[in-house]
Amino acid sequence: MRKTKRDERESKRESRSAEPRATDSPTHSSARRGDITAKLLNEDTLPLTLLLFYHIFFLQVLLSKAQQSVPVISTAQGRVRGILTPLPSDLLGPVVQYLGVPYARPPIGERRFQPPEPALPWPGIRNATQFAPVCPQSLDERNMLTDMMPSWLTANLNIADTYLTQQSEDCLYLNIYVPTEEDIHEEGGQRPVMVYVHGASYTDGTGNMMDGSVLASYGNVIVITLNYRLGVLGFLSTGDQAAKGNYGLLDQIQALRWVKENIGAFGGDPNRVTVFGSGAEPAVSACSPVHYSEDLFQRAIIQSGSALASWAVNYQPYKYTRQLGEKVGCVVDDSSALVECLRGRSYRELVEQNIIPAKYHTAFAPVIDGDVIPDDPQILMEQGEFLNYDVMLGVNQGEGVKFVEGIVDSEDGVSAEDFDFSVSDFVDSLYGYPEGRDTLRESIRFMYTDWADRDNAETRRKTLVALFTDHQWVAPAVATADLHAQYGSPTYFYSFYHHCQSDATPPWADSAHGDEVPYVFGVPMCRGHDLLDQLRQDWRPEPARSPGHQVIHTKPNRFEEVAWSKYTPKEQLYLHIGLKPRVRDHYRATKISFWLQLVPHLHHVNELLQSVSSFTHSPSIQDETPYSYTRRCPKCGPPAAPSTPGPLLPVRRSPRSQRWDRGAGRRRTHCPA
């Protein structure tokens, strides 16, 4: 029989495998290992080899001891093991990190657009040593509200993407940073707890990006960061029972419930919990009566945010929900059918849709649902829902930089034409009643013109930044502080002035929105930058290790030999945070009085004129635009005269969907007296 080439190859392979190989011989193997050992242990290489062996041995011992030294914590859902992390400074002790700990069930399938449910128990020991996926969000910059995002984030989106690429609807996890050094001043060994709620206008971000290790170690507090649902998945609402919205806020509440139930096992005090964060997110969340009724936290630090800002609450949720449905092929009139259709779409298809909100607003944000946010935040504050916490709040000097940065020629200043256009666009976007807009425009131009240097383009740029900063951040923050402090509730106000030059903001900018966040998390203590070293030398706060330490001091605390007193509506004391901290009073008082006193008066007059002219004129232009001003109670008649301590910003809210009247059954409507 003739052999094929395949047969010949197989025959050769069999013959080779049948031949005895020297390497298969035990004797040969031993001899070979002996040769290698002899080479390693000759007199030239012996010291180096022994050093290598000792290094490997002790490294294994240290790793084993480190693993054993990390305690396994028993929570209500199961046991977790973290990771011991040393920090790059002799001032800081190591921290145990527990990463990716679930606080709720995955909001997938039928649980999409539903309140969160508590996490299910897990068997065995869960290794909490790496971050969980982040909540779904668009990575397309065109879908981001960059004007209202922290400058350090918008300038480093390429770095942020490394944290944001791993996304999943199964994202409701938190991270816990626990200091390891004992503090003899802490009674009973329980530490204060700080829960960080990240900002970015309800659309972007993750708690994973903020490493709480330095803050935990230096402050001897337990720091917690968390993920919550964002954008369409976190705040879609039909204005009725089909999808009430506020799922992102409910996630935060569920996380705080988990903290209250479990933080004692980590050495934390459930009765000393501080919620903090940058932006409107923690401010709106703190307005919810749910927190007080369940005693979920006792203090709040609100950085550069207010529930009174124009984008803090969405007053026309159904409009944007319908727009989303049209974009993904869910064109139905029934709200329940619409929500069911949206549940059938992939989360990626939903979050990638570019739903453009009205200017200075957000498409998917908290809504007045009758439960989590039972009424307008201003009314809740006036009724005392916000008075039960100690509050620290403040602003940065140049919050509005992003609104001006994109204006033509901003590097060389702002031309008179660009200044006038920006003011007109600002008024048209936020205020109704065309008859009164000219008066308001001229009033704003007058107030924000430096008459001693009116032809200087750089001065115009500076005053334009101040305009956006005052209206969108400072005035709402001062109004919030006044409302909170007028009944004696502990209130502290600050203004952050320090600007560390970086690529995040242009060279002409002051401290922009979010610039304080890296300092809060201790970046100067980990970086070798000269300016940060200078800052660390100049800022010598009394360590949080002092006797009787509290996260927000209820007694005058020491900061560079400066006693920071409580804020009151009369004295309006605030802490100027810069290289030379000091206490001042009445922050930007003239400009803020313009927004809180004069503008509401002009607005009130124009409302009266509009109501009179409506009897003799056909429907005005404002009735035909999608962003016309709507009073809280359209049928209640002209608004009442402003009450003490003064009216808040009468910015034009986007019109509410009529579904609120027939959908949110428990929602209360307050009409002016």
TrEMBL record:
Keywords: Cell membrane, Disulfide bond, Membrane, Signal, Synapse, Transmembrane, Transmembrane helix. GO terms for biological process: nervous system development. Coiled coil: none annotated. The keyword Disulfide bond applies. Residues 70-595 form the Carboxylesterase type B domain. It comes from the Eukaryota. Residues 636-648 have a biased composition (Pro residues). GO terms for cellular component: plasma membrane; synapse. Residues 617-628 have a biased composition (Polar residues). Residues 1-22 have a biased composition (Basic and acidic residues). It is found in: Cell membrane; Synapse. Residues 1-31, 617-673 are annotated as: Disordered. SUPFAM superfamilies: alpha/beta-Hydrolases (SSF53474). It is a single-pass type I membrane protein. InterPro entries: AB_hydrolase_fold, CarbesteraseB, Carboxylesterase_B_CS, Neuroligin/BSAL. PROSITE patterns: CARBOXYLESTERASE_B_2. Belongs to the type-B carboxylesterase/lipase family. PANTHER family: NEUROLIGIN (PTHR43903). This is Carboxylesterase type B domain-containing protein. The lineage of its organism: Eukaryota, Metazoa, Chordata, Craniata, Vertebrata.
